[in-house]
Every structure is written in structure tokens, then in C-alpha cells.
User: What shape does this take?
Amino acid sequence: MLATLFLCIAIHATSANAEPQAKPSQPNVLFIAVDDLASTLGCYGDVVAKTPNIDRLAAMGTCFRRAYNQLPLCNPTRASVMTGLRPDQIKVYDLDRHFRDEVPNVVTLSQAFQQAGYFAARVGKIYHYNVPASIGTDGFDDPPSWNQTVNPKGRDKDEEHLIFNAEPHRKISGALSWFAADGEDKEQTDGMIATEAIRIMREKKDEPFFLGVGFFRPHTPYVAPKKYFDMYPLESLRLPYAPAGDREDIPTAAFAHNCPVPNYGLDEPTLLKATQAYYACVSFVDAQVGRLLAALEDLELADNTIVVFWSDHGYHLGEHNGVWQKRTLFEEGAQSPLIIRDPSQTGHGSCNRIVEFVDIYPTLTDLAGIESPSGLAGRSLKPLLNDPVAQWNGTAITQVLRPADDRLPEQVMGCSIRTHRYRYTEWAEGRHGVELYDHQSDPNEFENLAEDSDERALAVIRRLRPLLRAKASGEIPTVPVNPARL
Assistant: This one.
């Protein structure tokens, strides 16, 4: 079956001799990726976030409030989005493996647009980067995906020595670390990314383009101009609520190896400062998104440009009594922001149907009217863009691989399925624990119904287990995996 899939994909590989011509009516694509962004946006119901530009985009298009990534770690999720395939198909689970190691001839999303005559460019982070170490470089890029790449590097790189690290025994890339910077937005890397993206839009306004714009914040270290920190006074912030015994019914494997100790052992004032810094970065990125949207209007491109806004995965800010950052299969880690605005769509506003990030690829090719490879894992969201309450019957699959450590005697694959009502998760096919949450009565996933499960919970598990295992394997991968980079 996999051989057939790869053969189908290979048929669509880029031909060096091909000279495709795009139709003048073909829409542009502005493909905006944000790094480590939780649903800390006004359009997702966050009452703290100040994100007027992203909220405006959501009002103009469709805000998918229940969109789920395939693996909550930068490299695997970005590779999955760009190939339209699941982690088990591309065999990417860590930060070191490139998807072309497994599927060398796969046609990426931007390549599909290239083959249709589009100019494809990347500014900033679309594929994986080590942040902040690789800012200003190509990172872990895929050269065939682009006709042009731009890698800005701002004053945030020069001022890394000024960053406060709440966990000095860890690198700022993975620690709670932040800096309220002097200067203007356009001096920061993300500000420069917006500037370069606008330049490309201006230069290519008369030909169809696929423009990937990847912002680095709010990935740690949380760096933004000071004015954004001032928008979130510390006295206005609170840590998330969880009942005192919340962790007692949760398997050990559910907690990421990079955050085994609740709140990293930090005190509440420090955690609130980290929260302030995170929200500051969110508002900083929102301002850059506003610049991009304004440029579309100024260049008279808005009526012929599809805008996609997404974050590579979800993010924790202290939920479940002290979970931070990514790498979990809880709702906060698996659910991610996704907004699509198509000038021709007939529906607008929020959509509560369950969708997946593998749906992004077939959606964009469908909207642009171009050919996409056979064997993509997702399906087009166009029906939901035209009618957000259309019949859908969606489920979402998210997985993550844990290394063997002092908590787990072996590598453990966790796999989770989200339906409209339930989340069911199993670790190593249940050998290292099972979770079941009823989102109708327990949206914060405080009560694991798989512990001391009654007959009703067992019936749900029996129904969901085969649906989960049909799309994600709980087996330990046979491909190379770097435990230090999971």
C-alpha cells in the first residue's frame, strides 16, 4: 500500500524541463505560519489576548476552532503540512529527520503550485529551524520547495546576551526566557520578515505567487519590543486553573519529558512574567500580520489572494497544574490555530467541525484549481469555507513519540483521536496508559474516564480504538530517531 502511495506521489515529481504557465485568474496564496502559537487569540475566545489583526482576518474568512496538528513538535508537524501526509507516512518524529529521507520524490505543497506556474517564495520559518540558533540561515529547509528564500536576522539575535533565562541550566531555546526589547518592530527578525514579504508581494504582484511567511515568535525566547509587554500588566494575568488532584489519573507518558516537573519548579511571579512575555510576542506577531494584510489592500491583491494563517502546533501556558510549551496530546497541544480566507468563499466566521492540518494541502490546491498529488492524507475544507456548519463527520489524529528515560523504560508512541465529543489517547497501544475525556462535560480534560471506566466509557473506547489505529501506529518506529531531539 505504501509502495503504491509513493509511486503515485513520484509521478508528480518536479520536472526540470517543464515550463508550466499559470492562468491569469489563478489566485495568489499568502501562507502565514506562526511558531508555537496557542489559541491565545481573541477570535478563539481568549479574553486576555489583544490580536485585532488576526481577529479581523478570522472575521473575513473562516476560523477553524477545532483544527488539530498531526504531531506537536516543529519539524514533524511542518513536514506533515507541507507534504500533506501523516507522520507515519513520512516517518518523521523528531527534529533531525528530513521527510525526503523516506519519500524523496514527494511533491510538497509549494511545489504543486510551482508546477502550476506559480512563483514560490519563503521568508522566515516554514520548515523547521533551531530557534534562535538558526535564525538568519536556511534552517532545515527543503530547497526544491522554493524559487526564492529570504532569511532575515534582526537585533534579537545581536541582543541574545540580554535575554533573561528563568532556567539557566537550560538553553534559551527550550527554557522560559524573555526580553522586552528597545527599538521598533522592523528591527526585530519578525518585523524584517514582514518587510521582506511585502517587498516580494510588490515585485510579484503581476504574476501568481505562493508566498510562505514564517514568523519565529512566540517561540522561546519570548522577545518583542517593550510596548507589547506594556499591553499586559502583570496584575491582570492569572495562571490556568486545575483541580488539586488533576494529575492523579493521567499516565506518566502523557507529560512531556522536557517538562516532567510541574511549572519547572518556578514560583508564580516568575511564571506570570513568562506569561506576559508570551502574550507580548503574540501581539507583536499580530501587528506583523496586520502589515501583511494592509499590504494586500495597498497593492490591490486582496481580492485575488487566499490567506492561510496557522501555527505549527498548540502550546501550554501552565495547564494541568504546570504543563508548559508543546509535545503533549492534551487539547492544548493538539489543537492549533487555523484561519483561511478565500476571496470567493460564501461562508464566514467560526467553524466548529473537526479538521486536521493534513487538510490544508488539498484545500489550497482545490481553491486554486490546480492539480494535487494522489494519496494525500486529508481532504479539502472548501465545503466548510462555503458553509461552516456543513455536514462533515470529521475526526483528528495526533501522535507524539517519547524517549526512554528515568520515567519510561522504553520509547513510547502516544496516539490520540479527537471526535466532536471525545478525546481518546493510548500510549504504546495502551501498555503505558489510556486516556478518555468527554469534551461535552469536561472541556479542560480534568477527568480521565479510562481510569476505573464504566461500561459507557468502555463502549466509547471500543468504538474509537480501531478508528485511531487505522491512521496512527503505536509501535516504536524502525527508522532512525534521535532521543535527544524528540
In short: The chain has a mean pLDDT of 95. DSSP finds 14 helices and 19 strands in the chain.
